[in-house]
Amino acid sequence: MKICRFDDNRLGVVEGDNVRDVTDALSVLPAYTYPLPRHDPMIANLPAVIAAINASQGGAVKPLSEVTLLSPVANPGKFVAAPVNYQAHLDEVIADEETFARAHVRKIQETGLFLKATSSMSGAGAPIEIHHPDRRTDHEIELALVIGKTCRDVAPEDALSVIAGYTIGLDITIRGPEERSLRKSLDTYSVLGPWLLTADEFGDPSGRDFVLTVNGEERQKANTSDLIMDVPALIAFASSYYTLYPGDVIYTGNPEGVGPIAPGDKISATINGIGQMVVDVIAQ
Fold this sequence. Notes:
The protein is globular, with a radius of gyration of 18 Å. It contains seven helices and 20 strands. The longest helix is centred in the first third of the chain and has 10 residues, at 46-55. The protein starts with a strand and ends with a strand. The protein is an alpha+beta fold. It has helices at 41-44, 46-55, 87-95, 108-111, 180-183, 199-202, 231-239; strands spanning 2-6, 10-15, 18-21, 61-63, 69-70, 79-81, 114-116, 121-123, 128-130, 137-139, 141-147, 163-171, 173-174, 190-198, 209-214, 217-223, 249-251, 259-260, 266-271, 275-283.
C-alpha cells in the first residue's frame, strides 16, 4: 500500500495517478497526554490504520497533481544516516580532495553512523531552500526505511521484520570541514517522499535500481546491491547503539555522482518499486 500525507495533514492512499482521502482511519489511533511518546503514533499503529483503511470506502479522490505531498512520516524520533556506504562513492570522495574533507574519507565501519535533526524534514511537495549560498550545496539520493516497532540489538536475520515501509530520501548537504550532522541538518535538507510504500508490498530491498536527475541531466544512478553495508546490516548496526522507535528513519547511504544544486534547479528522484518525486530548489 502507498500511504501519503498531503495538504492540511490529510492521510491518503495512492492509487495510480490519484490519491484517496482516508483520514478517517486515523480515528483508531490512541489518545496521548503529556509527556508525548517518542515515536510516530501512526507508524506505531500502522496495522490498525491499514485495517481501518481496508474496512472503509474512503473519502474524496483527487489527482496527485492537485495535492501537496508532505513527508509520509509526521513525527520521526530521529534520522539515522549512513555515510559513504557505496564503494564507488568512497572512491569518488577519495579522488576529490577539494570538495570532500579528508576527515570524512573513511569506510562506514570506521566512521559509524550519524544523526540528522528532524527539524530538517521536508516533503516532496515543498522546495529545498538553499542556505549559505556562498558555499556548495549537493544532492544525495538514498533509499530510506521507516522503522515500524520499538527494537534494540536486532539480529541481521530479523532486521527486515522491524521495517514499516520504504520511501525516497534526499540528503541535501553543504560541503565543508564541519561535522556531517551540522552540514546536513539545515531546514528542508532531509526530504522524504513521495509516499510510504509498506514493507510487504516493497519486498526485498536489495537489487533496487535508482536514479537522480537535475534539470533532466542524469547525475546519480546505482543499485542497492552495491551497498557496502546492506539494509539488514544497517539496522543491526544502528540498533546496537540506539533503541529504534516506530517512525525513526534510516537513510541507507548515497552513491557516486553527487553534484551541486542551485536555486531554479529541479530534482527528480526515482527508486524502482517506490516511484518518483520531483522537488524544486529555491533560494532561502
